[in-house]
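> @MW can you paste both from yesterday?
MW: sure, first one:
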Amino acid sequence: MTNLPLDGGTPLAADPLTRAVLEIDEYASGLGWDQPARLFALVDSAKLRAQEPALAEQLGIDDSATTSLTPIEQDEVPADVPLDEFLATIAWPDPVIGCALTVERLMLPPSAEDSVPEDLDEERLAKWVAEHPDRQEVRMTVAVLRTGARESALRLREKDSASEVLTGAALVPGLADALAATFEG
């Protein structure tokens, strides 16, 4: 487990979930592109300090921490298992009040939707997208809380700057649904 360092470059946000998503995005940005998916548990910083002071100290969480959610990176996400199948195997303990995932993908603008060839299997579709001249590399950071709150951050590789990160609750609904499902049952 790794706690993310608070970085002065992370834009300020009023909502704790938005701050956590931006903190994770900034952390992932510092690692560079072409990285594997990364999964994070989100815990209440004050409760962590009160219930596990030694762990909080080890993670660098003290009373001066400005965020109320602490992202804790989990073990590596397996690259050989489809992401939806991997997420279906996760169950979080009660102290985890949310989770987040950062993943890189290729995306196309809506104008390219009409030119997608029909009857492509997943592998051939991925190849077609990878070769499309209008493709964009994007890093998506999506977080959900047990309460149902959601937040996302999108960073395009060609606009790799904290000031260019787009945030919103409904930017990546499918991934948010998959993360929310890790709290069901």
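MW: second:
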Amino acid sequence: MDKFTTLTGVAAPYPVINIDTDMIIPKDYLKTIKRTGLSVGLFAESRFNEDGSEKPDFVLNKPAYRNAEILVAGDNFGCGSSREHAPWALLDFGIRCVISTSFADIFYNNCFKNGILPIVVTPDELEKLLDDADRGSNSKMTVDLETQEIKGPDGGTIHFDIDPFRKHCLMNGLDDIALTLEKATSIDTYEGKLGETRPWA
């Protein structure tokens, strides 16, 4: 998993509430267990017409936001089913940070496990960030995980809270497997002693 320390990128405004995981990645794209190639399915029903052509009014189809790395979204983002393909699709598109007033618990946890930083802000702060993100190519923001700050294009700063353990994992690129491997020496020592004292185990 890639480390997340400081991210500076274009922020796309998507002020739609109750975006569920089926809207993020429709069920037609769940046949694979690969984490790559899913960006084509990201918001597919909102991004594309039935013939596969792009809907020009959808935010990520607009030239200024095609390379967005931050998504400023409406309340209750990631609700619905628990599919981990949702953060995979966001990450494959290039989005490393999602900002909202609230997230569904499972989606929120899956983001951290896949190197995406979900940030919870107040409604007033979200309104300011949506205004900043609505500036097209001038909507660049900086998200500093070390200082826990979001800096807008005009220099305004918003502080956000995050669980210290999750912060540590993101900053060091540690997913569940990497966390286990950090204890590899202790695990080997324990298994060695177990083999000596309980050879039948």
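> thanks! The first strand starts at residue 6 and ends at 14.
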